[in-house]
């Protein structure tokens, strides 16, 4: 099956190189635009809803989220068994501080009275802007502009500027500014990807109070006990009256004001909202004092200053991360949106990660998956190495929990990372497509290897990376075995690979191949650093055992078809009847029992093909082409992780047309809602994958132990491609046209790289 992006498909948001313009209110797309127009900073994220709230009768999903902060609830099984996941973590939804509701002569100012309405998300500066004209039933017109952003420099801060202009009248306008922890949750029955996230079920009110021109709330997260504070402060224009009917209800604080407007003149209201959290045993007053101090710092600096420093952060980010595509505006907008979303969603404090939906919606309950390690960290290692390190540091912070999980699963050594989690505990209630995906360990090892090859960061390896490699490597020798009936080859049984339409198999090719890569890398690393091996308690005998397992790893192969077998049994199954499967029955997981799917040759996403992409030069191009030709027609691409990998695979094996089609699907996966579920959050791994399509696929960039390699083959339709890379304390700019590339060393020591396997040495400032 082939994933493509139709050139005639109408775009939900208008095309622009640096903006997401929303040119008209569309009730049917309100919830989708909430996702697309989200703003965040890796800790705090808030969906792109209207300040006055969702219009009556439209589907919506309000949400403000804190990354790494979660509630916990017991998983209820009809039938349970030993070591089943016990609790589910849910990314915390917190009070909505965006609320600004206006009235003119007692009539609500909302979208129903709009004469025109436009918004745009300015990705260059990280600001959501809104501009609209409202008319009352009596003909009074009010022009409104808002600017909203989540500060990149002040992780706890959300700020809003509201500008009001009375177009054809003079008189009072009332304003209600609120902090709302009562907004409804969202649930879509029958779709396991969505989950059910409700602020009412996850937060318990500890205390709340109004303050002068603001208010504060303190909650406890259910299950985890984490304390969460939300505080806000309004800065009002001169002459504003504070009405005495200030309201305080449980989980809802409101301040009411009256603004006197003069025809043709504008007045501004600034709102600052701060969120912070602390461990369950922390002092409540201390957390509120911390929040109050952060709030005071923000409004004392003023809206213009906090906006300036926020925009300065984005300027620096784009200097290193921007990608330009000369020949396709839709793809240009798509890749910038994807890079923008990655920056908004990735945790930066070593205590949080990046959720599958980022901070843009409730999908997958905000869980962390292997998406981070296989898709995001390889990208960030070359764009924002420090951020990549922080994501890996988060995994290191949960190493002890991974050790405990291995013991729960009856393994005496090593660490087993959870398939899906927030706080380090396994949260997957369906073990065939959850716990059985042991390849999460290999994904983390792959991310460590990717970061190390891109940065050469020896200190990280000594402090964190090597220990994670050692503990996950020890686990593989617990899980796998040397089969005495098969010449003592190393086998791994009863696992699930990336293809979740095939579960609980022996010798999944992807898993075995990635474990082989991990063990070989770990052995090479520790043999070169014997003191590190000693410090980690790795003996020469243990290293020898790992090397033997890598050397004798069984990689299933079918000689008749001359392809790698996905596992020991996959090629024995009957093919799925694609011809007679109605289009409305995709994705299969929503329409067929898992057992029906498991007994067929059908893939949800790249599996063997993914292994071949990640293994790079270790698999011949001829072999990659044969594997791709066999497995792609059996792949539904029901997972958003699939299209980008197939784009790289087709580019690498020379089918540029198909590579371009799959890239188009990846680059605009969310902007055009290709999977029909962006309403509950963007697809973070796919976003990272779209960058990999351009850089690994069309530019042929590979970071190998031997150095940096390029083999460009850019589709003619994309014209010229330009991007930057951080590589081992150097900054490079690469421009690609067709099969040619220009490389400029912007900063750092001279570098020898390989263009179409030809060694080229460049010095700082030079362009070749």
Instruction: Give me the Rg, rounded.
Output: 27 Å
Contiguous helical run count: 19
Uncertain regions: pLDDT < 50 for 5+ in a row?
2-8
Task: Please identify, by name, the CATH architecture of the domain at 41-318.
Answer: Distorted Sandwich
CATH class of the domain at 41-318: Mainly Beta
Fraction in helix: 25-40%
Please tell me what the overall shape is.
globular
% residues in beta strands = 25-35%
The counted number of beta strands is 35
Mean pLDDT, rounded to whole units? Answer: 96
Report the CATH topology name of the domain at 41-318.
Beta-galactosidase, Chain A, domain 5
**Structure class:** alpha+beta
Fourth-level CATH superfamily of the domain at 41-318: Glycoside hydrolase, family 65, N-terminal domain
Largest sheet: 9 strands, antiparallel
How far the N terminus sits from the C terminus, by CA atoms, comes to 40 Å
Major β-sheet strand ordering: 1-8-9-10-11-21-17-16-15
